[in-house]
Design goal:
Alpha-Beta Plaits, Beta-Lactamase, alpha+beta, six-stranded antiparallel β-sheet, 598 residues, seven-stranded antiparallel β-sheet, 3 domains
């Protein structure tokens, strides 16, 4: 009886002990906690390495405006950092088909067969039907094993053709437009894509979009600058010819000079001046002057007889019509006219009437003999202007006073055009909002100063700075206030720079650059402090922007270097950019000076 009672009393105690033992068993051991801590440390270390790798790739992308260099470098770096076997770039056509771009691919050794990038056309019917499909929504596509993803057979056949076992793709946007896709491929085996890998691939694709947009803008600017240069060159030739027309009555010399200068200006094969025979009713005539490359036959004194010209074409030319043929074989000419042009080896031509008062005196002919040629509108306008001046010159022989008046008017027009060209050239180097130097002028100035200081043993310093929390400022106060903030900041910084050789430029967005030639690190630091104080003294309110500062501030990065052979301008930019990054990481509203580059 006593034993039974004792057992009854001990049962709750036994249960309590059993529960306590279970709970003790659930508590991780020291070894387990150490293993978990080690795993967490490895994950953080991998994330840190990925961020550093991404920063290196972004730095290389930003260091160049050459698309080929940008994409070749990026695909190579991405391939190695993701440890995959191939990285390629797919570019969309206007019809949502596309191709892999030959120069934008990198493959590890052993997987360079069947290169995707040999401008391989790969038209995906799904992408064409849905105009980019999921990529338009900025979604990535991940396939760890093509054999287990339930892909269609036609899709599998294409993938098998290039030995693709796994892939991950991320869209490349230029602004709001889907431009292409950055793709990572694994050939030898399946690949379990990690979240960090997809995030990295997507971030790189995003940076490539910015790079393409920047390069396209620069190319467009350079094309405009080249067009302006050619127009200016043509206008200068025209101006010189006008001056000669005003001062000379020797038409033979004038025609010879004109033909020579025009041929060189247009880089064409022949320029000739054709005169109709008097009283021929425009049925015959000959070339009275020309300038032609030696490999082509001369047209001088060659009698041209064309009985249908007077009836069918003379009135049109009298009314100002011109003939512009890019390819005479495709122009639908009559056989007699085609045979005539072939006698002079002509493949493309511009023909402009030359008037003497109201009379069709002759024709100004520009010939391309080696190939067909698409003529630019500026070239056509130039020839028309020149032909008009011939008319003035012809009248000049009879009415010198009237001719002088016309030349004076044209001289004024050319001066105005020249001034307009100079103004356009100046504007092409300015940022339209802040009216300081733009990125194009910054690149030119930094290169120029680098080359100048190469042999002087003097320092070149660079300050990069941007406005702290500028996105928050824009979100809080609006873009108009943001624009005004940028203008006031640049004006404050400009007031600090006293030397004409110092260049303040808008580097991009809210980021700015200051080039300081012949300036060592100590002086650059002092100037940077003055710049920082000048911006703070503006006391531009920033309350409500979720920052801890009442006024707008800036962060600055400084780099100084004595230019030497074998070094690169990009070293200075990279040092300054890294210093700026550190200033922002340390809390902003400060400057950080990069170590001196020896």
């Amino acid at each position: 009886m006593i034993h039974r009672k004792l057992r009854g009393c001990l049962q709750p105690v036994a249960k309590l002990i059993a529960n306590l033992a279970c709970r003790i068993g659930e508590i991780p051991s020291i070894e387990q906690l150490e293993a978990q801590l080690h795993d967490k440390h490895c994950q953080l270390k991998a994330i840190d390495a990925q961020q550093k790798a991404l920063y290196r790739v972004i730095s290389k992308i930003r260091a160049s405006l050459d698309l080929d260099v940008i994409f070749r470098t990026t695909t190579k770096e991405t391939c190695k950092l993701l440890r995959v076997e191939r990285v390629a770039v797919y570019r969309f056509f206007d019809n949502w088909g596309g191709e892999f771009v030959e120069d934008f691919e990198f493959a590890e050794p052993g997987w360079d067969f069947g290169a995707l990038g040999q401008n391989t056309i790969w038209n995906d019917s799904y992408l064409q039907e849905h105009q980019g499909g999921r990529y338009r929504s900025n979604e990535c596509l991940i396939v760890s094993d093509v054999l287990t993803e339930g892909l269609s057979q036609c899709h599998l056949d294409v993938l098998e053709q290039f030995h693709i076992r796994a892939y991950a793709t991320a869209p490349i946007f230029i602004g709001q437009k889907l431009w292409g896709v950055l793709a990572a491929y694994q050939h030898s085996q399946p690949h379990q894509w990690q979240h960090q890998e997809i995030q990295f691939l997507s971030q790189v694709a995003n940076q490539l979009g910015f790079a393409v947009k920047q390069a396209e803008l620069m190319a467009r600017t350079e094309r405009k600058a080249e067009d302006l240069r050619l127009i200016n060159e043509q206008q200068e030739i025209l101006f010189n010819l006008i001056v000669e027309m005003r001062e000379s009555l020797d038409l033979a010399t004038l025609f010879k000079t004109t033909a020579r200068e025009v041929r060189k200006a247009l880089h064409t094969d022949r320029v000739g001046i054709f005169q109709f025979d008097a009283n021929s009713h425009y049925t015959s005539g000959e070339f009275v002057s020309e300038n032609v490359l030696p490999e082509y036959d001369s047209a001088i004194a060659f009698k041209v007889v064309d009985h249908c010209f007077g009836d069918q074409y003379a009135n049109r030319y009298r009314e100002g019509q011109i003939q512009v043929l890019s390819d005479i074989s495709q122009a639908g000419l009559k056989k007699c006219h085609l045979d005539l042009l072939k006698n002079f080896q002509v493949k493309a031509q511009i023909v402009v009437p030359v008037m003497k008062g109201n009379i069709l005196w002759g024709l100004l002919c520009v010939h391309q003999c080696d190939r067909p040629r698409v003529w630019e509108s500026t070239e056509i306008a130039f020839i028309k202007q020149l032909a008009a001046q011939f008319s003035v010159a012809l009248r000049h022989a009879d009415l010198l006073s009237q001719s002088d008046s016309k030349a004076q008017q044209l001289d004024q027009a050319l001066q105005a055009l020249k001034q307009a060209n100079e103004k356009l050239e100046k504007l092409s180097n300015l940022d339209s909002l802040t009216q300081i130097a733009n990125r194009r002028f910054f690149d030119q100035s930094l290169k120029s100063e680098w080359n100048r200081l190469l042999c002087t043993e003097k320092y070149l310093s660079l300050i990069l700075f941007d406005i702290d929390h500028f996105k928050a400022y824009n979100d809080c106060y609006g873009h108009l206030a943001g624009d005004q903030c940028l203008i006031e900041v640049t004006q404050a910084v400009q007031s600090v720079l006293k030397r004409s050789s110092d260049v303040l430029a808008r580097y991009g967005g809210e980021e700015f650059a200051v080039i300081l030639p012949d300036t060592d690190q100590d002086r650059a630091v002092k100037l940077a402090e003055k710049i920082r104080d000048a911006v703070k003294n503006l006391q531009i309110p920033s309350k409500g922007t979720q920052t801890n500062r009442p006024y707008v501030t800036i962060s600055l990065g400084i780099a100084s270097q004595i230019p030497r052979m074998g070094q690169s301008i990009q070293d200075v930019i990279r040092q300054a950019d890294q210093a700026l990054y550190q200033a922002k990481a340390k809390g902003r509203d400060m400057l950080v000076c990069a170590p001196l580059i020896q």
